[in-house]
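I'm curious: can you give me some protein's one-letter sequence along with its backbone structure tokens because I've never seen that pairing?
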Amino acid sequence: MLSPGRCPAGKVSIHMNSKNLTISALARSSGLSRSSLLYYHRLGLLRPTARSAANYRLYSGPDVQRLEQICLYRHMGLPLREIGKLLKDPARSATVGILERRLRTLDHEIETLRQQQRLIAKMLKEKVLYKENPMVNKDRWVAIMRAAGLTERDMHNWHIQFERMEPNAHQEFLESLGISPPDIGKIREWSKTSQPE
């Protein structure tokens, strides 16, 4: 069940089957609960255009468009207070400021998640994580080395030195790239039998 003020996942597209929708019909069409719509009403975000003869709330096409806008902003992660500001004057220059602040917040959250990912990977000694879901695979590693200016001969010599000086670390490194055990065996054998140039 959705908590008050929470839009359903995905893009909200509400179909108007009649000129006006009651709150129950709008709730069904939008995937929101009646309590969410009433919550928006209390906050002044969404008010019905009209009332029926029986005093039921009636939402028009523009009301539905406004609700779709609210849900779009909610999917961006904007708080309802900020959404209220945007809805009051969507053309004002503050709109850009609000969206830029949200983007900076997301950048910070993403970086925090990346740091957490690195810490977790380190705590797991990176082995299980990299075997099941390598962060850098063989092709990507080769592309990085080439971008750094290394030739095929340079990379060949690199493997030779790695195998000669740190054979266990070389094995773990190759595993971390998601290379299959038979191919790792071939690379290590090739590194042992070749001579550095």
The mean pLDDT is 80.
